[in-house]
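Continuing the series of single-chain predictions for the mutant panel. This is the parent chain; the variants come on the following pages.
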Amino acid sequence: MSISYADYEFYTDEYHGTDFSTSEEAMPYLQKASDAVRRAIRYKDELEPPTPFQKEHLKRAVCLAAEFLLETGNNSGASANGLSGYSIGDVNMQIGGTSDVDMMATYGVPQRAYDELIVTGYLYRGI
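Parent structure:
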């Protein structure tokens, strides 16, 4: 059973999101985004329950990720994928910096959601 940190009421009342007009429209995206956020933090919220501060940022990250999924038309849960560089023989070229698509492919959440999650401490991968 999935945990959804953000619901439609949080999305509209606290986050002040306007991309979704109904709960029925928003919930599939919020659920996929919640799943992506929990994968990005490697389910550390199950080992160490989030504080109110962490919950707030988890909810905001879910809302940001849901809007990204809506923008990209990606509600399947699959990672967005875009070309950001190429190699020909010994020549490598990287175009641009880290983007939402790059972060989505790497962490399963867009850069904007990753920025919210970084303050929670859940992204720490060290010992």
